[in-house]
Amino acid sequence: MKKSKYDEIEIPQELSSVVYDAIETGLKSKPKKYNIINRVGLIAAGLIAIFIIPLNLNQAYAETLSQIPIIGDLSKLFTFREYQFEDEIQYVDVKIPQFSNEGKTDLEKRVNEEIVKTINEEVENSKQRAKEYYDAFIETGGKPEEFMKREIEVNYEIKCVSDKYVSFIINKWETWANAYCQQYFYNLDMETGRELTLKDLLGNDYKEIVMKSINNTIENWSEEQKFYLFDEVNIEDLINENTKFYLNDQKQVVIVFGKYEIAAGAAGIIEFPITNEE
After folding, report:
1. Mean pLDDT throughout 1-28?
2. Structural fold of domain 82-196
3. Do the bridges between strand 90-98 and strand 79-86 make them parallel or antiparallel, or are there none, so unpaired?
4. Signed CA dihedral, 93, 152, 37, 158: sign only
5. What is the pTM of this model?
6. Domain range summary for the chain, segments of one domain joined by +
């Protein structure tokens, strides 16, 4: 698929209103029964809540859990500040993770300050966009009670926690008639306090290693998966020290390309677990 042709696709003017109506209809309709996936999800959420809620409210509880294998690892990061905000324009739901590394207060301070700064900036930018949408809606004849609030959500995903590494992602979702996601990746060396790079994890030949693994993965894709890739985008040009990645629970590097970065939007966010055969 050619990226230039994809970018030139003309979006019908009525598309936003159609999506807007569809979202509104979806929000009003509630399924009568949960399927098995939803039930499993609720159970998992409940189990997490059993540990996380007390962990964030009770320091003694957190210290006790830190002595338990696995749960102790999670407690290094599962302390967060949470807040919600709502007005006639937007609904904001934010969870800010707090990195904890016993004995390395400088590292804790630097990482936590960066996290808070990044999240606050993103939330403020989203609020400003929501205000601009609202003003434009009113100026074009819309009624305040008919405006669909913009939803702004910030949360995080813990990918890997060990005595040596901590890897997590902060996600910011912004939803109205479309959905927009911004991701921030944190990969920390617990021994040195440094931000990990691909070179640190894969060596000087990291670019060749990454490209060999990605090419092998794409070769095994179906024709439908390959169809969405942009013909004129050279993935190798995107592999450098700033390439986004995280470590999974097996401490394996996973390269991440955002929506529209190497493929059409229908492909979504694309991830490549990297296998180093050497």
Report:
1. 50
2. Heat Shock Protein 90 (3.30.565)
3. antiparallel
4. negative
5. 0.69
6. 1-13+197-278, 82-196
